[in-house]
Design brief:
It comes from Urocolius indicus (Red-faced mousebird). The protein is built from two helices and 14 strands; from the N terminus they run αββββββββββββββα. By secondary structure, the chain is an alpha+beta fold. It folds into two domains: 193 residues, Porin, CATH 2.40.160.110; 41 residues.
Length: 258
């Protein structure tokens, strides 16, 4: 059964299709149907320690680790739980994303949502591409705690162009590792068409930026409409008053009327 499941599952790294060299595209398919899709640009900021030039003091350096375009991947799709695992540079770095779908009681009744429930990042400070002369090199794991991110109504995809920062805590002396995400489009459940995202659910930051972009246009249209209405009212009023018979107030002028 396990062999049959493995044969029926396909994973594809389609990052080469993106015009942004920092953006990755991952697809998981089961039974020839897309069950998970994820697009994002991601980078980890990992602090680590090196010796100072006097070999007595310690200095804190920072490694900026992007997710490689040539990353290997695994995926797991489920009714209420899905996972995406990405590894690169001979598994020196591994990113695991865990998704959960659940119901919430709202004023409109029971509604289903999905969210990113956990992130786990394994990194090797002995890998020399991003870590230079790290003290006590070795593998470490950074994880989130009680994460509830990318919350999206069931049946929709999550979209956010703005950069988001998620904090992880490493077992390397509890160091804080930062995950920077941008240009995100993710859907781990209920994909209705193969290789096609469902209707997007925009993040609050994108919604606010879109409102800020359209608000001046809306205000300009309203102002223009008010000016047009004012001119029309003035024109109608002027026309009506011009057509009215002017009754003289001086009674001496009545004799000229008739």
């Amino acid at each position: 059964a396990a062999a049959r499941l493995a044969a029926e599952q396909e994973v594809e790294n389609l990052s080469g299709l993106s015009l942004n060299p920092e953006k990755n595209i991952f697809v998981v398919r089961e039974n020839r149907t897309t069950c998970l899709m994820a697009e994002f640009a991601a980078k980890f900021i990992v602090p680590y320690q090196v010796w100072a030039s006097n070999y007595v003091d310690l200095l804190t350096e920072q490694a900026d680790i992007p997710v490689s375009r040539g990353a290997e991947m695994k995926g797991k799709c489920g009714t209420n739980e899905s996972e995406l695992e990405i590894s690169w540079l001979e598994q020196a770095y591994t990113l695991k994303l865990f998704f959960l779908k659940e119901g919430h009681n709202t004023s409109r009744g029971q509604e289903a949502f999905w969210r990113l429930s956990r992130i786990q990042f394994t990194y090797d400070t002995g890998e020399s591409t991003y870590f230079k002369d790290a003290i006590s090199p070795g593998k470490h794991t950074a994880s989130t705690h009680q994460l509830s991110a990318l919350v999206t109504p069931a049946g929709k995809s999550y979209e956010c162009q703005a950069q988001q920062t998620i904090s992880l805590v490493s077992n390397d002396h509890q160091k804080a590792v930062q995950l920077l995400l941008s240009e995100v489009r993710v859907q781990p459940f209920d994909i209705s068409a193969d290789f096609v995202f469902s209707e997007e659910h925009k993040c609050p930051v994108d919604q606010r930026e879109q409102l800020e972009e359209t608000l001046p246009l809306i205000l300009g249209l309203i102002l223009g409409l008010v000016i047009v209405i004012t001119l029309c009212v003035y024109h109608i009023h002027h026309k009506l008053t011009a057509n009215q018979v002017q009754i003289p107030r001086d009674r001496s002028q009545y004799k000229h009327m008739g």
